[in-house]
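Contributing new complexes? Match this layout with cobalamin.
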Amino acid sequence: MSKIDLVLLHAPSVYDFREKSIMFGPVSDMVPSTPVFEMYPLGFTTIAEYLERHGLKVRIVNLAVLMLNRKDFDVEAAIRDMNPAAFGIDLHWLPHAHGSIEIAKIVKKHHPNTPVIFGGLSSSFFHEELIGYPSVDYVLRGDSTEEPMTRLLYAIKGKGSVSDIPNLTYKSMDGSTVINPLDWVPENMNDISLDYSFSMRSVIRYRDMMGSVPFKDWLQYPVCASLTCRGCTHNCVTCGGSAYSFRNHFGRRKVAFRDPELLVRDIENVQKYVPGPIFVLNDFLQGGPEYVSEFIRGLARIKLRNPIGFEFFKPPAEEFYEFLNEHLDDYSVEISAESHDDAVRTAFGKHHYTTAELEESIAAALRNGCSRFDLYFMTGIPTQTAESILETSSYTESLYSKMNNDKRLLVFSSPMAPFLDPGSMVFDDPDKFGFKLRARTLEEHRQLLIEPSWKHIMNYESDAVSVDDLVEATYEVGYHINRVKGKAGIVPQDVAEQTMQRIVEARDIMRRVDAIHKEPAATRVKKLGALRKEMERLSESTVCQKRELRWPAKANWRHVVNVLALWAKESIAGLLGIRTGTQGVACEATKSR
Ligand code: B12
Ligand code: SF4
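Output block (do not edit by hand):
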């Protein structure tokens, strides 16, 4: 097999999570990952596919999943045995601040002459600090690095210079930092592939299922994401992916959409191989009426069989659900309303709808064939008091009663944790929003991550609620929402009771950790160590059962046949030394290579 040009490594949030005693808490309850955030950015697959289309060979290694699956998985040995032309490490989500930098150190220890490239939104925000770490050679900034990464790889291989690569921050020969302009900001998202074809081929090519799965339980729950755009038209004040953040930190002035036709093609390819639900992220209604019509009619044309879910930033009206119902067999909806209280939601930046409108939308969806409606609330947002957090549970009860305890409606509440997003409006100007930051720099965040509980890890404090009260209220509202869901028959009574019991135990551990935290360092480590197993158990499925987030899916003979056909094609190509994959036209910049 020819030499690999780039290995993309995904680190766990905290590198030595298998030894450290940390009560991560409900930080990842609303996403498929565990608290070590083992999911790698979708951008790994778009970078890998793009590079391969341009003549380079890439491998994704999800170290976080490998470490989660095998307690004795030897990270150092695995890295030592790799030998690519360059390593890429994501620091996209700030909770990876600890793990990604530790992994970079290990890479440098075993491969001192191999370049280490960082990228992702947090890397972009902290690029000047990040490049100061001895184990980081390059940082590629911005939300679209497929083309700059291709140019960088060719430069590393001796074809071209780094001085004119857009979005690149690097160390020059004399050790000083060079910051190239952030001007690679494509207007659309049509030059990349988002159909998981790279992941499928990669599993077969490297006979490595676990190293490249997106998250730990993906094989049991093969959910796939589709993305309509890069950027966002909204301005939620704590979001590091808002229009404000993209404009001020990632160079994007306008949302970049993916053509609806391509989006349909992505989904068509996914449904060939993967039986799981397809989740369309970044509200496609932002694209306007023509976009919506073309996309949904396209899904009907390909006779979509997988369940499909849509994230909406604003509750849609009845006619829209009628349209979905007419064209799709199995659709679901997800809305993050943040708070039941209009004033709090407005302070969050979602002033464009009221709770009354939300309720009308839920009722309309349930009347028009929606398979499932997930409604999310959040704790820790500007102006939200402990009382307001607790009121969410009585509101939930009244909402269920208004919706006749319809089992298709699932309400969840989780904290804004562990971090307030860097580059969000609140992060940039905390005083204006009644917040105080406990950490500003990357290094400060890296240190916070190894504190003993999520209460100590959090990077913010709100004037509206103390951190102690926020943590208590978060568990309390989770407890009551479960009680309401159990009573209304939304989740089985025994499941609700198990979750409530776990919440009681989690609160107890939090109090014990608080007490231990005040003790001298020598006794602290030992006492926290004794709680390690309990902390691990009580940091997953805390405020709800992770199973509740899952939509049903079944594999059929078509998936098996298609996967076998792909396996045969990949194996034959491997024997003959032929590259396979999406055929694309090389862009101007890479044509000459
Ligand atoms: C889709 C999405 C998700 C999906 C993830 C899908 C996935 N696997 O990527 C889900 C819903 C699961 C999710 C979860 C989380 N998310 Co999220 N998510 C988004 C969202 C809405 C869009 C991201 C997107 O469009 N990506 C497009 C793809 C194609 O590109 P990409 O993955 O970003 O990669 C490109 C660049 O970032 C860069 N890049 C990325 N990695 C690397 C690595 C290298 C080496 C290089 C060179 C470049 C590079 O190049 C890539 C290709 O161009 C943004 C908000 C927004 N408006 O942007 C938030 C956002 C990214 N998420 C955020 C957060 C906080 C989270 C969570 C931590 C929340 C939580 N506590 O649970 C978790 C983490 C999950 C995990 N790792 O296990 C914050 C991040 C803030 C920050 N800087 O830390 C954002 C900005 C906003 C928000 N609050 O939701 N998220
Ligand atoms: S939280 Fe708000 S600003 Fe951020 S991606 Fe969602 S809608 Fe856009």
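Reviewers usually confirm one structural detail per submission. For this one: The first helix runs from residue 42 to 53.
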